[in-house]
Amino acid sequence: MPLMEKVSASFCKTVWVALPLACLGLWGCKVGPDYKQPDMKLAGQYNEIASATRPTTRGTSPSSIQPDYVRWWTTLNDATLNTLIDRAARNNPDVLAAEARIREARATRGVTASGLFPAVDANGQYEKYRESENQPGISQLSGGSLQIPGLEGDLWQAGFDMSWEIDVFGGQRRALEAATYNVQAAVWDRRDVLVSLLAEVAVNYVELRGAQRELAIAQGNLSSQQQTLDLTRRKAEGGLVPYLDVAQQEAEVGTTAATIPTLQAQIRQTIHHLGILLGESPGALSDELSATGPIPIGPANVPPGLPGDLLRRRPDVRRAERQLAAATAQIGVATADLYPQFSITGALGVESQSFKKLFDYSSRDFSIAPGVTWDIFDAGKVISNVHVQNARQAEALQAYRKAVLQSLQDVEDALVVYNREQVRLQSLKEAVAANQRAVDLSMELFQKGSTDFLNVLDAQRSLFAAQDLMAQSEELVSADLVALYKALGGGWG
Length: 493
Description:
Layout: H1 3-27, H2 49-52, H3 79-91, H4 93-114, E1 119-130, E2 139-140, E3 146-147, E4 152-166, H5 171-237, H6 243-277, H7 286-289, H8 310-313, H9 315-336, E5 341-352, E6 364-373, H10 381-447, H11 453-487
Antiparallel strand pairs: 1-4, 2-3, 4-5, 5-6
């Protein structure tokens, strides 16, 4: 049989041996457990659902509001807040870092996926050689080539090298599963970062408007108290009241004035923090937010849906579930090491001492070599790694359960706090109205000389305290609403 026919027959025989192994790598079994999402037994409704739907006098009636969980901040009806949140979502460093982690996870998946395919390298080489004339006769090198004294010439080589580890037992496919789940976890991580960011921007904006409201109340009370001080001085100069009343009113004015610098500092600090949340410098929003604005008010009631909705809506829960899936796939990666590993290596090229003949049919050479390796003894290394992955999967399962339970608590807490604070706010509104009537009546009686000045002071103190508490409560109600939307997983789409 001619030499080339022998070579071709040998090549075909080797291919027929390697082909079934390649098919096993594409359609073979996958060791390790298949992932199945845990079945979480959740209640049919929230314990605080009755509180969440209790009618109040604040905001929009429940029948006229449809919750928008994706852009929940628009229910607060504040154009400035809408702008701030849109800018934060685009420029916040934490969000941009989370997006980079997604790109990293996707690239890592690409690296993992490449392991399922053959690796092919192209190579080319030119060699100019000359053998020494001062060597004895003809000798054979360890590589099989001959050394002839004084021999010189050229050697041209070009070709391809191929190696392929065939995924017979699915270890690489399990690794690709894990990498895919990690990409999905990174996507949910970005959404979780976004939910937290948008809530933080909204809360800080509410705190800013609340501090501005408290400052306006303090300045208004200070102006009123100064007018009362002027009136008291005139009465004291006329001998109608003792100078003790003047001193007491001066103390009241000083106490109220002392609250103003603290509120001004709080306003500046909040503006600085909002600038950072938007990915800008601390003073970037000074001109935009220094003017006093109203505390944004949202709907009185937000239908929270069913507890089972959190498994779909909360990004931190979804992230934990994807991490559990990745940990499950890693068990298969470790288990595959218990089985033999099949591979194919080969080379195809041309070699000639003359460049003109390099690509002639007679210059070709090739090799193909199926192989198998199997760790017979490793002192329990592979088995221990399987145990490690099983333990990590059990840890990820508990992390998922904790995330679900924590999400339920967040919603229950937010529901009760939001509802109770609205009730408290209604009481404070009534208290402010009553204290305002007391101040008006006491001043009227004092001007007529029918009551002691101490009654005026007490009424003013009570009014100022009630107004301040009411402003804080309005701020808390809106902040609690933000917390409720965050607990429900709103803020991504």
